[in-house]
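Figure 6 in text form: structure in, sequence out.
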């Protein structure tokens, strides 16, 4: 046993000596080739956001002093990351595309090393990710922009570059497409260049960015950390493109009308006020383009539409934002019956084209606590039809006055609201009282697409009276899941009646209704030149997008929603993600 023990010790000693000799020989060989570089102890990344930013600024100064730009003017990109993934995904394990070099660019979302000379970067671009494979033995140190700085620091450009690239930086990479031995599609890089450094510490990949306030205030950071949210705005763009294509195919002409107006008109809403200094006149931002578009119908443009921003000085909630996008079109020689058919075709076709089905799943009660209970909404035509007054009477068990324009009708509605426990903010105009009753008793029942039709004339100053009863209008609103998404009617084209309706609205305004429309003599004059029988239609694009993307908060479908100032008084954009 003793002999065996000694023999074993001698064998281990001999192996250790041979290993040390081989290591020394290899070191001498590398030194002769100039490959071996003195290794620096890797500094730990700071956890303090201010320290991280300070280090980044110091690094940029060092680059600038060495004649290296941290913000180069150009990086020639051959293809996008999604296109790269699509083009080379068919490759087999360990297969590389010989004789092909590709230049990509993206944001570094993860950086890791397998050894001192082998690094992997995850690059994100246009919603997709690709791996960049960086190995010292194949890297083109001679063409690297930091070669001079690296030599001054006594190391190769490969190590200098990777020491200065951090998570969040935008980089350009050049190399050979291929797959690793694990089948991971990668770009085997010969070059990597810093295109724009990220000066702020990104939230960790593990915890991500979930705080709503930060996501809305710093949407750019939301898109960096939650690339799937990009799909919401891609769908929004497709929705608008679909509507535009649909109307273009019907011979409509897209136009642009003024955003700055002398008077607010075309809708019931409170406007934002401003002043034109050169003209020395008070102006308002438009609440709707309706009156201008109907003037164009008078001028002979029989089918016109506009997709654009509207501005209403109203409250902010889950379905309202002070500025929003609408589509309005006006169609000569049509009426609201034609618009119902068109709306069914447009909305159902859009849902089918963008989601692949007429039936969607929608989480109307989603919150920070969880996604809530999903509900199914079926956009298969035909849509439901509800008549406002008859169905409201049935729901309330009362008979409403036929003529709602009288003072007696107003008193009746005030008492009815009180009896039913409905609170309506003053002024208690008839239009506001009826709207409140409908909002409390009818609208919540409209889960699937529903046309709410034939509003009282007191609620529709720009609509034409119903052919069967002049107390009601030829108007409908489209509701989905209790939310209004479209409004349409046969347009009023009698200038005398329109003038009287404006005067009635002016009386409501004098009572304190800040949303009532005033008079507009210029529009009445336009009607006196002759507005043909016309149908008008408007849709809130933001609300429609909420259903297409399964979002129950309008802020989720607006890139930059209106927000209160940061509580500490500092601009929200100056608050870093790490501090949040």
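Output sequence:
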């Amino acid at each position: 046993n003793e002999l065996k023990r000694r023999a074993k010790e001698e064998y281990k000693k001999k192996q250790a000596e041979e290993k040390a000799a081989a290591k020394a020989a290899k070191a001498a060989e590398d030194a002769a080739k100039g490959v071996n570089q003195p290794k620096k102890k890797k500094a730990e990344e700071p956890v303090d956001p201010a320290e991280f930013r300070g280090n980044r600024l110091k690094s940029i100064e060092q680059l600038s002093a060495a004649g290296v730009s941290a913000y180069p003017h150009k990086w020639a990109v051959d293809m996008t990351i999604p296109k790269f993934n699509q083009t080379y995904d068919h490759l087999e394990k360990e297969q590389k595309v010989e004789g092909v070099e590709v230049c990509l660019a993206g944001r570094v979302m993860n950086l890791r090393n397998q050894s001192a000379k082998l690094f992997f970067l995850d690059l994100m671009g246009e919603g997709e990710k690709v791996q960049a494979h960086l190995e010292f033995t194949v890297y083109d140190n001679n063409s690297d922009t930091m070669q001079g700085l690296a030599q001054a620091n006594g190391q190769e450009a490969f190590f200098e570059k990777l020491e200065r690239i951090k998570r969040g930086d935008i980089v350009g990479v050049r190399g050979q497409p291929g797959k690793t031995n694990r089948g991971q599609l990668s770009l085997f890089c010969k070059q990597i260049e810093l295109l724009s450094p990220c000066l702020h510490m990104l939230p960790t990949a593990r915890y991500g960015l979930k705080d709503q306030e930060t996501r809305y205030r710093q949407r750019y950071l939301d898109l960096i950390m939650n690339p799937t949210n990009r799909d919401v705005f891609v769908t929004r763009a497709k929705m608008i493109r679909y509507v535009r294509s649909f109307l273009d195919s019907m011979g409509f002409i897209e136009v642009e009308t003024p955003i700055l107006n002398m008077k607010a008109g075309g809708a019931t809403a409170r406007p934002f006020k401003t002043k034109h200094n050169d003209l020395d006149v008070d102006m308002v931002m438009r609440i709707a383009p309706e009156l201008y578009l109907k003037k164009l119908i008078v001028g002979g443009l029989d089918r016109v539409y506009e997709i654009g921003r509207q501005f209403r000085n109203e409250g902010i909630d889950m379905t309202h934002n002070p500025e929003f996008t609408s589509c309005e079109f006006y169609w000569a020689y049509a009426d609201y019956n034609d618009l119902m058919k068109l709306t069914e075709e447009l909305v159902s076709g859009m849902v089918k084209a963008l989601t692949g089905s007429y039936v969607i799943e929608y989480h109307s009660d989603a919150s920070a606590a969880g996604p809530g209970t999903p509900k199914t909404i079926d956009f298969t035509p035909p849509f439901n039809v509800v008549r406002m007054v008859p169905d409201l009477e049935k729901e309330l068990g009362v008979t409403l006055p036929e003529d709602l324009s009288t003072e007696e009708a107003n008193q009746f509605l005030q008492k009815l609201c009180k009896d039913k426990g409905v609170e309506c903010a003053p002024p208690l105009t008839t239009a506001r009282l009826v709207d409140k009753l409908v909002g409390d008793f009818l609208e919540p029942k409209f889960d699937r697409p529903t046309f709410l039709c034939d509003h009282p004339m007191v609620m529709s100053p720009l609509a034409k009276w119903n052919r069967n009863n002049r107390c009601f209008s030829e108007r409908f609103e489209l509701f989905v899941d209790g939310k209004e998404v479209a409004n349409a009617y046969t347009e009023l084209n009698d200038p005398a009646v329109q003038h009287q309706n404006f005067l009635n609205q002016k009386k409501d305004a004098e009572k304190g209704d800040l949303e009532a429309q005033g008079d507009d003599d210029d529009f009445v004059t336009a009607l006196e030149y002759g507005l043909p029988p016309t149908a008008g239609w408007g849709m809130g694009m933001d609300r429609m997008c909420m259903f297409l993307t399964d979002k129950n908060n309008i802020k989720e479908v607006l890139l930059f929603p209106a927000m209160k100032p940061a509580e500490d008084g500092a601009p929200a954009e100056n608050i870093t993600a790490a501090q949040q």
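Caption detail: Residues 36-41, 569-580 have pLDDT under 50 and may be disordered.
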